[in-house]
Amino acid sequence: MNKKREQLPYQLIALDVDGTLLRDDHSLSEANISTIREAANRGAEIVLCTGRGTDSALPVLEELGLEGTLITHNGAVIVDSRNRELLAEEGFEPAVIEPLIRHARTNGIHFDVCTAFELWVEALNDEVSAMYEKYLVNPRQVADVLAADDRLVKLTVFGTIAQMDQVEKDWQALLPDAISLIRSGDFFVDVMRRGVSKGAALRKLSAVKGISLERVMAIGNYYNDVAMLEEAGLGIAVANSPDGVKAAADQVTASNNDDGVHWAIQQYILQKA
What number does CATH give the domain 3-89+197-270? Predict the structure, then answer.
């Protein structure tokens, strides 16, 4: 095993992207870039672990000047960025989510579905298009997402906080046994195959790489990060996290707007190496 990596307290650093690594304006700070690169150069494995799709996460990894493994779609997909090789996928057939799609259509709630590398929508307007642009997503518009001939990895609905609160309540009675939902942001609810989570994907990836979970540090900010924070040997919530996420973490660092990732890596890895 890499000798430098052995000298670090944590060998693998799992980073959520939006609300954690990126500032609220979706930019990367120079402090975060510099510290993450230093950790990588000293032997740490950097893994972006995000609710984003693969093509939306890749530009962030490239801006960091890194390559390697990505966990995307809240853990439903694991990809090698160097060749876009799909290493793992947890999907479901489109017909499984038909009751949820019907509810979203009836109530005028925007939704999209994802395969490992694509995002499909039935409708677009200026507000929704601006949201996709912000997250570096190029959606493909189709007449009926349920007519897809590919397995899906995620269904997402987008709307106001009140709308998403209501969706969470309404969909509990509509969810088939094969899938589950999670609140991935104030304005988003995600549906994936039951058992899929960032934590489960991190556990699988750590086993493949031969890295004990005790040597994994994870940093996140929202409820879809909780499983990842709990699986890692050291789970850190940024200061802008809801109280429930902070309670699931071992430590709390500065906010995403105040270089929380930088401070956490410096404090718990680089200064202790």
Answer: 3.40.50.1000
